[in-house]
Specification:
Elements: E1 6-13, E2 20-31, E3 34-41, E4 49-51, E5 61-72, E6 76-82, H1 85-100
Antiparallel strand pairs: 1-2, 1-6, 2-3, 3-5, 4-5
């Protein structure tokens, strides 16, 4: 059972190509076999929430909250590590800020 804050390796389709590759992602929530995740990149020029090797990442990386998508739980290969409560709060606060813009 996947939990919010799990960093997983999953089969992910890129937005600009039909290619599917194994990539890291952060689990936001899971329901009925669907897993909503945020992508993770090692491209430190991208905007997002920093994720360091000291936290468990293979490389210093960025959690991309502008790249949220749903995958089947069967597309998850493994759980790599779990985010700290502090990091999960940063993700929640940033998502809440962005979704707050929907109110107008």
């Amino acid at each position: 059972m996947l939990k919010p804050g799990d960093v997983v390796i999953a089969r992910v389709q890129f937005t600009d190509t039909p290619e599917i590759k194994a990539r890291p992602a952060v689990v936001l929530f899971q329901e009925f076999g669907n897993v909503v995740v945020a992508g993770v990149t090692s491209n430190l020029k991208m905007k997002g929430i920093p994720l360091s090797k000291g936290e468990g990442a293979v490389k210093d990386s960025v959690i991309k909250l502008n790249y949220i998508f749903t995958i089947s739980e069967q597309m998850v290969y493994k759980v790599s590590f779990h985010l700290s409560q502090e990091k999960k709060c940063l993700i929640f606060d940033e998502l809440a800020r962005r979704l707050g813009e929907l109110k107008g």
